[in-house]
Amino acid sequence: MKQSEPAPAAPTRSRTDRKSQLATIAANLFCERGYHAVGLGDIATEAGITGPAIYKHFRNKQAILAYAANDLASALEGVLAGVPPSGPPWERLDRVVRALSAVVVERRRGVQLYQWERRYLDADDHARFTATITSLVGTIADLLGEARPRLPAADRTTLATAACSAIASLSTHRTQVSPRVAAAGLRGIALGVLATGLPPRLAVAGNGDRPGAAAIGDFVSRRERLLVSALRPFRKRGFHAVTMEDIGAAAGIGGSSVYRHFPSKGDLLAAVYYRAADRLAVATSTAIEGATDPGEALRRLVDAYIEFSYLDSDLAAVYLSEYGNLPADDRHALRKVQREHVEQWVRLVVAVREDTRTSYARLAVHAALNIVHDLSMARRRHTDADQIKHLVFAALAS
């Protein structure tokens, strides 16, 4: 009788699976804390391995970021691959929206790579990641053109971009919501945005920011010049890639004189945050003061927020992207301010639409805010403030 062969060993996690697991953990941490604030030891601890074990899979942290971005790009390419080649346009659009919502819900913590942390990618990886997003928006715009043939091409792209931003908004907050409710809510919001109309676009020049450091002149304090001069470098290169000397040089202030106004770069960043929070608080409270009903208050609040994001986009971008680099005490204080601002929107939405549950209103508010952020802070703007306002109300009303 032939002796039986030993049973095969239980399958072990493949090297590729392990790399994907580590990249997912890293992407989550990068989005929560910022790329530069996360070390290989942090990733290893989260994964339950030793630091040196990471080098079996990645040569450095940059390689992990590239892998995470390419992994997310592949998931988005999968959404595109699933688009039916024929059929009613709205059904095909719905198919894309559902698939994209599923990807965002599944990868919620790491999807925000698209917004800020991709700026740290190498040129080739950045180009591929950006091309994938552009392709996704283009596909949705083309399908929208089939569904709404009279819609101008520029409006198709604007609506497609806004719909993607609405779906991706789930990655920008930590509101407790079940995957089923999140997917259904994001789908409804995105389809509502795609179905809305837009007013004619006015001329959009540059990035719309208020005058920068070069336009301030010599009639303001050195402290003010440092604050303004820090915004563009922080936004473009990130907090950790900018030195106090860089900021001082941009402001025309050399050497140790910079530290007479701010003891550290963290203190300067905190001052930027408090300025943004104060400006936003004043703008919103002034806007809704004297409103006669919730609808008017909401309209004024939307106008004030879009003006803040549109005209002070460098300040707003730093306010949104560099939170993790604040000193701990400032971070906790400002988080409360940001949450209260969101809740102000939620209260007004619920008051205007009394049949809307608070949890869904909160989901819609975050979607609306993310539309404002992505469209108003784009380096090459294709929308004006009035168009963004229409998109916000489409998201809130969906």
From TrEMBL:
Residues 39-58, 243-262 bind DNA. Residues 16-76, 220-280 form the HTH tetR-type domain. Transmembrane segments: none annotated. It comes from the Bacteria. The keyword DNA-binding applies. The keyword DNA-binding applies. Residues 1-20 are annotated as: Disordered. Keywords: DNA-binding. GO terms for molecular function: DNA-binding transcription factor activity; transcription cis-regulatory region binding. PANTHER family: HTH-TYPE TRANSCRIPTIONAL REGULATOR RUTR, TRANSCRIPTIONAL REPRESSOR MCE3R. This is TetR family transcriptional regulator. It comes from Prauserella flavalba. The lineage of its organism: Bacteria, Bacillati, Actinomycetota, Actinomycetes, Pseudonocardiales.
